[in-house]
Amino acid sequence: MKVLFIGGTGNISTSVSRLAVERGIDLYLLNRGKRSSPIPGTRSIIADITKPEEISAVLQDHSWDVVVNWIAFIEEDIRRDFGLFNGKTKQYIFISSASAYQKPLAHPVVTESTPLKNPYWQYSRNKIACEELLYHYYRNDHFPITVVRPSHTYDRIIPVPIGGGQEYTTVDRIKKGGKIIVHGDGTTLWTLTHSEDFAKAFVGLIGHRQAIGHSFHITSDEVLTWNQIHHIIADAVGCEANIVHIPADLLAAYDGNLIGELTGDKSSSVIFDNSKIKKFVPGFTATIPFSQGIKRTLDWFHQDPARQIINEETNAWIDKVINSYEKISF
Questions:
Q1: How confident is the model at residue 32, as a pLDDT?
Q2: Range of the domain at 212
């Protein structure tokens, strides 16, 4: 099976690429060649997907069983891909986002039929618009789409909204006994999924003809509170978490960029019903609990001090917000 990944070396997609190769897929990775370590067993196509003439010339002699775009975010990306791959692939998989689901949720158990509506986060609204355009192409032009909505999937990131991501800032604060911020009272429910678990289900959808026209989310079945998540991270580095709880809307007032990520996503309690992906990919189950997965992530950070990015601007912001909040709270 000849498969093209646009991207394929990111936080989620690296695990998928590795498993795809292990399963015997003839995998091509299209990117700009800026990452130094290609994934063994893959073939590289060096080109910039945002440059139409360049990409058309590079791809003109290829046809594909499956194309997966890991880096499509706006409708223009979808229009471009339709022009490139309509009639040249048997399946096109779009990576959407579970943040596109209704916010606030009317029901905490999320299925693929939960409405798509997020008035708080432009990123999510863009993904919704991409999905709507793809389904238009599916209905009117028979474009063979499958939509996958990851939720909070991690491998080489620290999966907390403040001082995390590619930063090591919050982990460093925990190790030094410093105060860290947890939004709200820390009791909202959340689901974290290790990328290797995600990969098992995703690879099962590659080339799955019955998945055409369908959408899926792929997550773990483990449900944790945000307090538990931060305490598990602290346990993984042998420390205690010195948590300060601050309301999400107040955090968003301090930094407007947090409105989307907190109000539009991580402040809602979410429980994912994974019965659909399990039906299409029999045998799929997530087997890496967060207590194990975060140790793998931290091991990766600790292998190279350059990965342990401590952002002093983030540190200063956290200190400022905590000091301000504690003054008005006591």
A1: 80
A2: 2-153+194-218
